[in-house]
Amino acid sequence: MATDVEFDPITLEILWNRLISIVDETGTIIVRTSFSTTVRESHDFACVLLDQEGNSLAQLTSSIPSFTGTLPQTMKHFLREFPPETWKPGDLVFTNDPWIGTGHLPDFTSAYPVFYKGQLVAFMGMISHVMDIGGKLRAPDVRELFEEGIRLTPCKFMSKGKIDETLRRVIRDNVRVPDQVEGDILAQVAACELGAKRIVELLEEHSLDDLQGLSAAIHRCSENSMRAAIAEVPDGDFDYRLTMDGFEEELVLQVRVSVRGSDIVVDYTGTSPQVDRGLNVVPHYAYSYTVFPIKCALEPELPNNEGCFRPIRVTAPEGCLVNPRFPAAVNARAMVGHYCVPAVYGALAQAIPEKVMAASGSPIWAVTTTGVDKYGDRFVSNWFLNGGQGATANNDGGSCLSFPSNVSNTSIEVIENTAPQLFECKEIIPDSGGPGRFRGGDSQRVALCCTAEHPVTLTFLADRTRNPAFGLLGGQQGRRGRITLNGDEINPKKTFIMRKGDRLVLEVPGGGGFGDSRERDSALVLQDLEDGIVTLERAREAYGHRS
Amino acid sequence: MCYVGQGFQIPVPVPIGTLSKESEGEIEESFKREYTRLFGRTVGTVKIETYNWRLFARAQAPPIRLARWAASGGDPLKGRRMIYLPENGGFVEVGVYDRYRLGAGKQYEGPAVVEERESTAVVGPHGRFFVDDIGNLIIEREEAG
């Protein structure tokens, strides 16, 4: 039987790395042929190789963690609707349904079958965040899903290599930038086709009939590793509760992490009920940002695949913020979903403090604008800013490197080329990182002015303007976030109009500190002072610096 | 070349000859062929743009004839000067020559200074120099002991 194929450790390692390398290569196709800067500049996409049962085997090294957690679940849904025997070479099934996919409409999740000697052996999976999906420009002030844009439940975009013209037209007719959106989907097709070709080459070179044996070996080895790591965590129930800015009223995320032997169950009972704003988080997304931090804490070096996550189960009561009922609004789900990470770490800090991270200045911030450019063409611009990373037991938090999202800051040159915005500054905010034995990561201030001849619509993804990133084990919180438009602080959950000459300033939140700041190495304090990361006043007050 | 909005350009062969508005169709076809070869298919109705144009040219190198050197009239030695020579450990008086007046083939001994419009050559105590029949200043240095 194919799963009995044995691999010696060297061969397993070589083949496993080759699978990762193949997926990384498909990632370069996505970057090269995608249109949205969200994908090609900020890397808001993922590529995952799945086995014939839809279990993840290898993922793109620079993937977005949420996507690598959702894709395998989406794939299993695809297989229920399109059983294995119904797939043909050259088919592509996709969806952007939030509950089946990644949690909001702009993300297209695609799957493409890999055939070898007439047999289905694997699936190439892709997710990209397209520039626009119709509906209201993304902002959390929507009331229900139908306002957010067009939704496509799983369907065949491509059948035996031929694109479904009706589907293509339906998408093009309902988005603001049809060429870009179609281009981004075609980028996924090109990447899938390349991935399939490389898998076939691998099978031929190594005289394998399929990936079943390799898949079993990878999953078995990964699950065992993960279980061994979990077994070292003290058994118990660890609770944590945190508040988030919400829309007008603050929201609560309540988590219980239960460790029993080599199993972990994470439950979100006590979390606020779902809201009639775009802040709801579908289960797939909450799952991703629950398992990912646990893996990062316990087995960071192990390449992500299905085996790693088998020992972890995530539950949440139906109708709560992290298990909402259709048609809940979801477009800003990251504003709640990213909080799963500090919640889990807040709980685990009680059991394994040396392995967790203080809260980061996340969720990731985004600025979205739409309008008409100087050539009279419609544009949509979507760019990102990271806040400071949380500190750990051994390290300061990274500067402007908020965890967990893995989406890059968009560079100014790219933004100024795609939107009528002129930047005045992009600078580190001194004292933004929470004090601690290890300091929270510092964050950035960005100021720009609008140069558009016609008014543009402006929306944000931003949080932590009321709830700064908390510290751990005596570490202090980071600086809160702040956005001003023409000098007045605004609630970033709403929609705005920006006119020529209007000035926008964004101050992203800093990361939380770890440990008592009075224990910080004085050489590090001096270095921070010299680098301008920390002011003299802060150095004296928080770190006991004597000049 | 790439589609407007993408961030990565692919090299595309363009037709040889004078390019004009009429060449656009051919260039576009060439781009589509290359794009399809790399990425499987083309993208709808998006405009195409070019970032860089490269021309590779190869030709027969023409034979070059160099003019024979003709020194201008007058004494090439135009003066004497004290210069510092590290080999001698101090200042030494040397002859200063006008390069354009040096006759082809005639040898001179260093140390010396040879002046011309754009530059000055300093010949050390172990050198000797001459101008060859096509005007190159040749300095030969005997190996120091």
Notes on the structure:
The complex is a heterodimer of chains A (547) and B (145). By secondary structure, chain A is of the alpha+beta class. Chain A is 29% helix and 22% strand. In chain A, strands 2-1-5-4-3-6-7 form a 7-stranded antiparallel sheet, sandwiched between helices. In chain A, strand 17 (482-485) and strand 18 form a beta hairpin. In chain A, helix 1 (9-33) runs antiparallel to helix 5 (178-205) and helix 3 (65-81) crosses helix 7 (283-298). Chain A is globular. The relative contact order of chain A is 0.11. The mean pLDDT of chain A is 95. Chain B is mainly beta and 145 residues long. In chain B, 11% of the residues lie in helices and 29% in strands. Chain B contains 1 helix and 9 strands; from the N terminus they run βαββββββββ. Chain B has one helix spanning 24-39, and strands at 2-3, 48-49, 77-85, 90-98, 108-109, 112-115, 120-123, 127-131, 137-141. In chain B, the strands form 3 sheets. Chain B has a 4-stranded mixed sheet with strand order 3-4-6-7, with no helix packed on it. Chain B has a 3-stranded antiparallel sheet with strand order 5-8-9, with no helix packed on it. A two-stranded antiparallel ribbon of chain B has the order 1-2. In chain B, a hairpin with a 5-residue loop joins strand 8 and strand 9. Chain B is elongated, with a radius of gyration of 30 Å. The interface between A and B is medium-sized, with 20 and 12 residues.
